[in-house]
# Entry
Amino acid sequence: MNRSGSHSTSNLQKTTRIMLTAATTLLVLIGLGMLVTYFYSMTALLGMVVIVTYILLGPVNLMEKGINFLSSLTTRLPIYGDLVRRSPEANPRVLAVMIVYTAFFLGITLGSIEFIPVLTHQIGEMSQKVGVQLLDASDQAISWADKNIGQGTIRNIFAQNILEAEHEGVLKKHTAKGKPVTAEERQVIQKTVIENALLQLENFLSSLVPNSISLVGGTLSGFIYFLAGLLLSYYFLADGHRIKEQLVLFFPVKARDTSAYLLDSFHQVMFAFIKGQVLLGLLTGTYMFVIYSIFHVPYAFLLGCIFALAELLPVVGTWIGITVGLTVILLNMPPITAAEVWLCSYCYQTIKDNILAPKVVGDVMGLHPLVIILSLLICAQVAGLLGVLLALPLASAVNVIIRLLLDMEAQEKHELEQGQKEGEMHVG
Amino acid sequence: MSDNLPHPPHLNSHPTLPKPGVLSTTSKINLVILCILLFLFAALMLVDYLTSIVCMIAASLILTYILLSAVNLFEHWILKIKIRDVNLSHSLARAIAVILVYLTFFGTATIAVFRVAPPLATQVREFAHELPDYLSQFTPPQNGKTANNKEPLAELVQESLKKSRVEKKEGPLTVTTQNSTTQKISVVGSQTKTPLYKLAIAQIIANYKNYASKLGSLILDIGSATLSSLVYGLTTLVLVFYLLHDGKELQKGMVSMLPARHEAGFEHFLIRLHVQFHTIVKGQLLMSLLSGGLMYILLLLLGLKFALLLSVFFGLTSILPVIGPWIGLIPIITLLAFSSHPLDIVQVLIACGLFYILKTYWIWPKLIRRKYDIHPILFTLSFVACLKLAGLTGSILLSFPLASVLGVVAASVKERHVSEEKIHFTQDSI
# Structure
């Protein structure tokens, strides 16, 4: 057998191997995608459950420690201690989860009773102000167009494009050029513009929330999903560590170490990420609220809340938060205030990104910002807001898997080469 | 798999050399995942195509296990009867037992329907009548305007715009002065809170009416007994009869259809499934009866209207494990929240907690003696999956058969791996 022949055979095999690997990987991705699409509501529910579970995991762990400490004190008490020792099935973890759950939902209820009036009030006020400013701006724009471009241009544009049937008559009466826009027409045009803008805003907002989970309609299946979510996150919190052990048992003996490693790293990535994002979000929201209050920015509370929520999104969150804040400031206050607020925010962000974030989130991610933005885009396309929230941990999970697979391939190749060397020695 | 494919020739001449894997590790793992996905898709398509039949089979399985204990008991009694010193044959005894159980069960059910149905129906009618009134207590009188389908945000901003336009006409500077802003705050504050709230309640009432009409048509469907539902019902009864009569033979037949080396394992699996299913149905029925009865007493003590209706609903939903009792609690809590003593909710919740503790630590170990192989998470997930797959009725019927099959499969897979591990370990030690 000549050398070139064997070379070409192994070459062909290499290509086939690569093609097969690529093809099967793609097929797996497509299949998983189809499964997720089919069970979209369930996947969205699971995503929510994972987020809530990891948010509450830290407090539950803390509470469990506290209960264990307390019970170690109380077992020495005469009657109570006897009772505790007699019921070995009573689980401190379950008690901790119950306490944290109750506290969490009570907190949410009380918080919404306390803050929602303030928030709706501020939202209403702000939207009114924005509306007035929009009106002013459109007034100016129409006058400017009448003066500089030609009388009635704007009217013609609107009459041709977007108007509702009921207003069509008003505008079509004067389609003749050369006449300025009348007050009535102006009103119609402004109304159309604002309605369209609002419609788009609402479409955008509703696209953020997965439909099947929105409980606004109070539908039966919505209730059931909500209940299922509550129960699932309760059981995940109470039984999480056991679930991992049980899951590992599913895999064949050979793959157990690997699967345990994978599950562990997913858990760590998720925990660190969600804990970190929530802590940083709270901190940033509070800080920005204080800053806004110091500079007497209107709607400080609302803007702080928006900032805290936006901060939950990695990388892009800060930009969204500061853009909203600066827009409001520029609309209401002199530009110098905007510059000052931005400076304060910038200093804080620098400290946060370089000192706080690595401490809180840790170095589990190790992803390049480009990868982060790409994964955010993909996940947003697939699952909306929920996808954006979960994009980073998912990306780092994929990262872990790819690294593991590369390691395995490298090991295999190494073994193969060793074998070939031995074979050649044998031939020699 | 790698044996069938050609190897590089220079390696072929030395049998001691390790053969290069034709498939890379990644593609091997991928193929396994692909096979699982393919199986899942095929199963999904099949269930999707045959939803009604699958639901029927699930319903007959559930009914079988409901009646199973009674049939066994009756058979035991009948076998004791001797006619001219000769015992009845097992098959005949079993058939008689099944027929007797059928007669008793459906007789009792009919009597129960005639006894309980009239008061229940009155309560249902009253309930359906009064619920919108309860809710509309919270709706301000001019709800005709909110009922039309305008988006809350758009309406809100439009209203506030109208206001600001009026103010602008009055004076050019009113918008920016401090005084008018505070006035506007109060205006907007009252404006913003009501529309959203009104709209939500109007939506709930509309949804409720929609459901009520759907429920009405459903009852009408069942009542008019269309041909297909009659066929399904009769088939279910026949299926249940044969399942009760020939259950053991069926199991043997299924086992014998497999290759010999898998027979023992499959039989073990089926027995385990049977035990699991029996435990679940028995336990859940018992618990639903108990909790429904206790809830009735509690609601009577609290003096709530519709106590019978609510506790029957609670008992029925409690048959579903994990998620059921919570669904049953929803109307009770809603009604209590709108009643004159909203704090009674706490009492109901405490009673439920006490019952849960009693059930877990005392009733369950004493009466059922056996735990489920199904983790609550598995059950909830399969319920949600069935909700997507087959709707609400389908998920009620399918979820716990599915969950128990999955649970038992998982348990046997785990056990097989454990035994493999033992073999592995002993080989290593040798």
